[in-house]
Amino acid sequence: MTRAIFVAKIKQMNLVIESRSALNQNDQGESLPVVMRVYQLKDAKVFERAAYVELIDDDRVLLSADLLGSQEVTLAPDATVRLSVPMEDDTHIVGIAGFFRDQGGAEWQLTIPKSQWKKTDPVKLVVRGNRMELVP
């Protein structure tokens, strides 16, 4: 008896990024928009080791060996951004960077395995202050 194994392909990367009213605050406590970059990657190693300045200034060169695609969005305080783009076949990891004005104690980058889209679609991210977190 022959058994067939079918692997569901993830064709679309649906991502919802929500911010809270306290976002990317300046010294006066005012909330400001933050630039977010979403990278489709073959491997996460270079992205995870990258310094904030390296990614903000030279991400395409730094990630060139692994980069399959990227999108940039500006997230305003107390707003929602929906991103829906084709998921590249060779994507294994989606890397997300939030370029907050204050990097001290920031959680400014995270990685999401492609398999996450099999569990939850869309994948949801919440951004508050200078931190990002994946919503289960």
TrEMBL record:
Name the keywords, alphabetized: Lipoprotein
Q: Does the keyword Transmembrane apply?
A: no
Coiled coil (residue ranges): none
Highest taxon above the source species:
Bacteria
- Pfam families from the entry? T6SS-SciN
Q: Does the record's keyword annotation contain Metal-binding?
A: no
State the NCBIfam families in the record: VI_chp_3
Q: What is the protein name for this chain?
A: Type VI secretion lipoprotein
* Species of the source: Burkholderia lata (strain ATCC 17760 / DSM 23089 / LMG 22485 / NCIMB 9086 / R18194 / 383)
